[in-house]
Amino acid sequence: MPTVQSATAAAAHNIASTRDLLADTQERFLTLLVTQLQNQDPLNPMDNEQITSQVAQLSTVTGINQLNETLLALSGQLDVSQSMQAAALIGKEILVPGADIRVGTGEIGTQVTHFGMELLSPAAGVKVNIMDNAGKVVRTIELENYSAGVHSLEWDGRDDTGATVPDGRYTVQVLAFDAHNAPVAVGALTSGVVSSVASSTNGVRVDLGLAGSFLLSDVRKIM
After folding, report:
1. 8 Å CB contact between 138 and 131
2. Per-residue pLDDT for 161 more than 90?
3. Do 218 and 96 form a contact (C-beta atoms < 8 A)?
4. Total domain count for the chain?
5. Are 171 and 99 in contact (CB under 8 A)?
6. Domain span at 204
7. Which of 13, 72, 73, 202 measures 20 to 30 Å from 189, CA to CA?
């Protein structure tokens, strides 16, 4: 798991590298300018406007590098903040984009993992199809009147006949419609318990075990 210290150290390293690059650029520019002045043709000396233009270019480069340094510092602070947020999720159940549902038999009987949906706009009707590994629909659930946003859904682990389905992995399909029966954009959500977090090239990721690994930005709801 990334620590605050490691994220801070990485940000400091990036800033130090930028400063070194800026110092090296300035030194090379000044060396070149002095060399030009020392070796200029006495009968055709460098124009003041030319020197002023080169100095202005250096100032522009300096300003850009200072801006980059500021952005790197902000990026480092964001990495630290995301790492702390992700660490607080360890042991918690969350909803992320996905269509998996797992059914198992526990001490209190049949247990079904949570799932949900994310609606981009209100829906007058929602149809949930739950399918087995062969793609066969074992249960259809009809729902009504949902607002836009993230919603948790439930399934009791029974098929359309009322019989308990075998343990295993199932897939959910969510369809939504408005009052005129036109399709509404909707995405299925799967759940998992955060076991660990780790940094990656794309940002902080949370590990949900069998449910997979997701970016922190994928988290739609904390249960």
Report:
1. yes
2. yes
3. yes
4. 2
5. yes
6. 93-222
7. 202
Span 162-185, pLDDT tens digits: 999 999 999 999 999 999 999 999
**Residue 206 and residue 197 in contact, taking contact as beta carbons nearer than 8 Å:** yes
Amino acid identity for residue 68 in this structure: N
CA-to-CA separations, 172 to 91, 97, 100, 183, in angstroms, rounded: 25, 12, 6, 17
pTM beyond cutoff 0.85: no
Between CA 67 and CA 61 the distance in angstroms is 10
Output the CA angle 158-161-164, nearest 5 degrees: 30
Residue with token string 């340094």: 69
Return d(Cα 80, Cα 76) in angstroms, integer.
6
Residues 98 and 62 in one domain: no
Start-to-end Cα distance in the chain: 22
